[in-house]
Amino acid sequence: MTRILVTGGAGFIGSAVVRQLLAETDAFVVNVDKLTYAANLSSLPGAEGNPRYAFEKVDICDAAELRRVFDTHQPDAVMHLAAESHVDRSIDGPGEFIQTNVVGTFRLLEAARGYWSALPAERRQAFRFHHISTDEVFGTLGDDGFFTETTAYSPNSPYSASKASSDHLVRAWHETYGLPVVLTNCSNNYGPYHFPEKLIPLMILKGLAGEKLPVYGKGDNIRDWLYVEDHARALRLVLEKGRIGESYNIGGHNERTNLEVVRAICAHLDEMNPAGAPHDRLISFVTDRPGHDKRYAIDAGKIERELGWTPQETFESGLRKTVAWYLENRDWWQAILNGSYQGERLGLTEEG
Ligand code: NAD
């Protein structure tokens, strides 16, 4: 049985990875998560009590705790998703982003290296450190072109700069120490269990509440959207079959302006929540975010060609599923909004 240590497994994408690993493989999963405001163990229904699951409430900046976790659980692979991930929060307070994304990744690499170098030869060869990152490290695109694996790094926000730093550290630990790493850079994710400060869940919940739908600038910034379960599947494939030392871009060829995304959400809400229709009357334009990247778009040709990955959802089918999920799982997000979860009350006032 493979033993996989997942960092950030109580977050949005990490929880999708853990749910898939438990449901679709026979792997033993160790979820290492500090449980920040963005974490939610109720995104892992059925995990607690599963004999193939262990949870460790650990900060990845804590070197001694990481050593203990590696020694205790003896993983065959690490999937590193723990991060501070919200661009707006990184602009307001970059310190946590440097701490977790840069220092935390360094500590995790060091713990993994110490553990890996002491493994017997066969297990050392099979070990993988998979670093999960974002396309935002590449900066912004003009009207055309795509990010490829060889696009030069050019991060513009404290968030993307901290993720770029962590990518470089991971690459260096491979080149310098031979740690068997794989890296992935993915476009914007959306789907169930997404914390309601990010664009898509924020707009769904505000639309349901009949509140204004704040859209940055003219709403013409373009993002390339991928359904989170498709991302999780791609990650598992790269972990299993990706070439050591290589990076793979992951994206769904779903470029949409923010305004198109919000209008599409409104159309689904009109159908599923007719009492509030028409929801697009709620759209309101607000001052753009500083350093707001104009366009992201991923060329996912390498992972498609080398590993045979393609997304299962189109943007239309994935968005429909997502809106329906938020309508059917009110308990999950109401606990976040009304403060019964982690003591933090999140008013629906932030802009995603
Ligand atoms: P998230 O904010 O939903 O979850 C992050 C998780 O990491 C949380 O559970 C949090 O408690 C945990 N965490 C934070 N700091 C920690 C620390 N110091 N020690 C231990 N755990 C800590 O993030 P997400 O959207 O699930 O993103 C996961 C990863 O994927 C991140 O590395 C992010 O950069 C990357 N990524 C995200 C997207 C996206 O669209 N969300 C796209 C591409 C890549």
TrEMBL record:
Entries under CDD domains matching the protein: dTDP_GD_SDR_e (cd05246)
Top EC class, one word: lyase
Record keywords: Lyase, NAD, Plasmid
Record-annotated NAD(P)-binding domain positions: 5-322
Cofactor: NAD(+)
Recorded catalytic activity of this chain's protein: dTDP-alpha-D-glucose = dTDP-4-dehydro-6-deoxy-alpha-D-glucose + H2O
GO molecular function: dTDP-glucose 4,6-dehydratase activity
Listed GO biological process terms: nucleotide-sugar metabolic process
InterPro entries the UniProt entry points to: dTDP_Gluc_deHydtase (IPR005888), NAD(P)-bd_dom (IPR016040), NAD(P)-bd_dom_sf (IPR036291)
Superkingdom of source: Bacteria
Protein EC: 4.2.1.46
Pfam families per the UniProt record, alphabetical: GDP_Man_Dehyd
Family: Belongs to the NAD(P)-dependent epimerase/dehydratase family. dTDP-glucose dehydratase subfamily.
Alphabetized NCBIfam families for the sequence: dTDP_gluc_dehyt
Official protein name in the record: dTDP-glucose 4,6-dehydratase
Organism per entry: Azospirillum lipoferum (strain 4B)
